[in-house]
Amino acid sequence: MEPFMNPSPAPPAVRIAGAVKRFGNTVAVGGLDLQVQRGQVLALLGANGAGKTTTLEMCEGFTSPDRGEVRVLGLDPVADRDRLRPRIGVMLQGGGAYPGARTGEMLALAAGCARTPHDPRWLLQTLGLTGAERTPYRRLSGGQQQRLSLACALVGRPELVFLDEPTAGLDPQARHLVWELIDHLRDDGVSVLLTTHAMEEAEALADQVIIMHTGTVSAAGTPLELAQRGAEEQIHFTAPPHLNLAALRDALGTHYAIHEVEPGRYLVQGPIAPEVVLAVATWCTQQHVVLGELRVQQRRLEELFLDLTGREVRAG
Ligand code: ATP
After folding, report:
1. Where does the record place the ABC transporter domain (predicted)?
2. Can you identify the CATH homologous superfamily of domain 14-224?
């Protein structure tokens, strides 16, 4: 009898291990590890210059890592480019189209390269581009160009799509159209690696989120896990300025950060239980002062993102 053999599991959609990419003195990606599982949406979230596009470009085979390994559907994106091309869809930042080409022609051209393409008319309709078939690319609005680029990435029915800021510059209606489409892709088992600056986009779309900062992973997890990490609560309260906080620090212990953020406005950060609110009120009584406004607030994912990646605006 033939021995029972476990079929080897399909490799992850994307596997990056220890990838480093430098441009001169700039370390764009500095030792990155990540995996996109089949049928999952992974969002790379990061500020300008975090290394998101460079990561996608290594996956798309446009550039090779200086060190480390990148595998896409188990293949080398550069050496196996021809085998990978029909299986992946790519939406570049800023489109990358011939400005004179008409919408319908561009989509038909992309569909022509695929074995079992989607119906281009269906995609045009789904992405709200019906009626723009004969419009040259350069005459489309920015949002229409963006949606056409997405249509071109998807028309070949890819197993895996790379979307570089798919909703940048879209109005809220168009953004929701794109979100719905990405949800449908996941339902159809398509794997998606996308980049975004928008925390709410990562929260709405992704199974896994990686927060990138200066080319490495600052935090990773499901949106819920990250939100819980970011969900540390804080108490804001007002009282007379310049109170001595030592007794409150002693009462709350080392898990809490307590600051007077501006004269008379105080902040307590840490796990907030009812006893903590009581301790603040008791401390005020001991100080013989009246507690003013008191508010308990949760840090959102956006706060976590800013804390991890810094609040200063980067040049690029
Ligand atoms: P953005 O959100 O602004 O698109 P990003 O997270 O995609 O940023 P990358 O475009 O990957 O970041 O850039 C990472 C760093 O590498 C930046 O400092 C950028 O200036 C630099 N960089 C990227 N491509 C090149 C290149 N071809 N030549 C030189 N430097 C580059």
Report:
1. 14-239
2. P-loop containing nucleotide triphosphate hydrolases (3.40.50.300)
